[in-house]
Design goal:
The chain is α+β, with helices and mostly antiparallel strands. The protein has nine helices and 14 strands. The chain has one domain: ATP-grasp fold, B domain (D-amino Acid Aminotransferase, Chain A, domain 1, 2-Layer Sandwich), CATH 3.30.470. The protein has a five-stranded antiparallel beta sheet. Strands 8, 11, 12, 13 and 14 form a five-stranded antiparallel beta sheet that branches. α2 runs parallel beside α8. The longest helix has 24 residues. The radius of gyration is 19 Å and the shape is globular. The mean pLDDT is 94.
C-alpha cells in the first residue's frame, strides 16, 4: 500500500473525467465514462466518488482499484455466470461486451446494516418490519448477521444524478421490469456469487457484508455486468475485530466507502444540496482503505499506474488498437 505522502502527492492528479475524441462520443455515469467502439463498450473508471446517489468528490487511485479488483472477481466467478469483460488494456480501463442492461439492481445482504435510505438498518430502525417484501423479527441489532443472506432489489439509477428506489420481487414482475423466470435465475445466480465472494473474502480475513450486482442479456443469456465485489458496490468489514466491536455496540472496521458516507453524515449531510468539501485527510484515508481491500482480497501489492492518467489511458488504448 502506498504511503500517506504518496497519496497526498497524487491528489492533484486524480482522474475526474475523460475527454478522448479518438473514442467517439462519451457518456457518463456516476463513476465511469463510457465510449462505444466497434460494437464494444470501453469503460473508463474515474476517481469520482459517489455517495447518497450523487458524486461528492474524488479519491486518489480509486478508479484503478475498482477496475482491477472487478477484473479479479470476474475471472473467479466465470464458472457461476458469464460476464461482460473482454480485456483490461489499462489499469483504469475495461473493454466489455455491449449488453442489454436489465433495469434493476440486485443487492444481497448478509447483515442488517447501512446508513442510506435504501439500507435495511435505516428502514428497520424507523420501525419497519416488512422491508423489500421480506419480514424481519423484533430485537435485531445494527450490524447483526442475518440467519441467511437476503435479496433486496432496487431500480437502477442511471447517470450522475440517478436515484435507486426500493422495490420488491413481486413489483419487478408485476411492473414488467424482468420476466418471472428470468427473475428466479437472477436470484439464484446472485446468491451463488455472494457465496463465492463470502468464501474468498473469509480466506482474507474479511467479511463481505452486502453487495450490489447488475445484470444484462448478451444474445439472450444472463450476463454479469458493471462491477463485482468492489469497495463501491460492496461493504467489507475486518473479520478479526467484528464480534468484539459488535458486542460493544461499535461500528465494525470497514474497508469501503461507508467510511466516507459516515463522515458526510457527521458533517450533517445526507444527500440534499451541495456536498461538503472532503478534507485531504479523508481523501487519503479513503484511498488507503481502497488499496487495503484490493491487497487483502487479491494477495497482490497495489502498483499505481503512471501519471497523467488520461494521457496514459490514451497511449494504452492506441497501442491496443482501440484508438486509431
Amino acid at each position: 500500500m502506498l504511503t500517506m505522502d504518496q497519496i497526498r502527492g497524487a491528489i492533484p492528479h486524480v482522474l475526474t473525467e475523460t475527454h478522448l475524441p479518438g473514442l467517439g462520443q462519451r457518456s457518463q455515469g456516476k463513476v465511469r465514462d463510457f465510449y462505444r467502439v466497434n460494437g464494444k463498450r470501453v469503460l473508463i473508471t474515474t476517481d469520482r466518488l459517489s455517495a447518497f446517489d450523487r458524486v461528492v468528490g474524488h479519491i486518489p487511485f480509486k478508479g484503478q482499484v475498482l477496475n482491477q479488483l472487478a477484473a479479479f472477481w470476474f475471472e473467479r466467478t466465470r464458472d457461476i455466470l458469464p460476464n461482460h469483460l473482454i480485456t483490461v488494456p489499462d489499469p483504469n480501463v475495461s473493454v466489455v461486451q455491449e449488453c442489454q442492461t436489465l433495469p434493476v439492481e440486485i443487492v444481497v445482504r448478509g447483515y442488517i446494516s447501512g446508513s442510506t435510505s435504501t439500507s435495511l438498518w435505516t428502514r428497520y430502525a424507523a420501525g419497519e418490519r416488512t422491508i423489500y417484501g421480506l419480514s424481519f423479527p423484533d430485537g435485531l441489532r445494527k450490524n447483526e448477521r442475518l440467519p441467511e443472506p437476503v435479496i433486496t432489489p432496487t431500480t437502477r439509477g442511471t447517470g450522475p444524478g440517478g436515484h435507486d428506489e426500493r422495490i420488491t420481487r413481486q413489483e419487478i414482475v408485476v411492473r414488467g421490469l424482468v420476466p418471472e423466470s428470468l427473475c428466479a435465475e437472477i436470484e439464484e445466480k446472485a446468491l451463488a456469487l455472494f457465496d463465492r465472494g463470502t468464501e474468498i473474502c473469509a480466506a482474507a480475513g474479511i467479511i463481505l457484508v452486502d453487495t450490489k450486482y447488475e445484470f444484462g442479456l448478451l444474445d439472450g443469456q444472463l450476463t454479469l455486468i458493471d462491477e463485482i465485489h468492489t469497495p463501491d458496490s460492496s461493504r467489507f468489514w475486518l473479520a478479526g475485530s467484528y464480534q468484539e466491536r459488535f458486542e460493544a455496540g461499535q461500528e465494525p472496521e470497514n474497508f469501503d466507502k461507508e467510511f466516507v458516507r459516515l463522515w458526510f453524515r457527521q458533517q450533517g449531510y445526507s444527500g440534499d444540496g451541495p456536498s461538503p468539501q472532503m478534507s485531504e485527510e479523508i481523501m487519503v484515508q479513503a484511498s488507503q482503505r481502497y488499496q487495503a481491500i484490493y491487497e487483502r482480497i487479491t494477495g497482490r501489492d497495489f502498483e499505481p499506474g503512471a501519471f497523467p492518467i488520461e494521457e496514459r489511458i490514451e497511449t494504452n488504448l492506441r497501442r491496443e488498437g482501440w484508438i486509431r
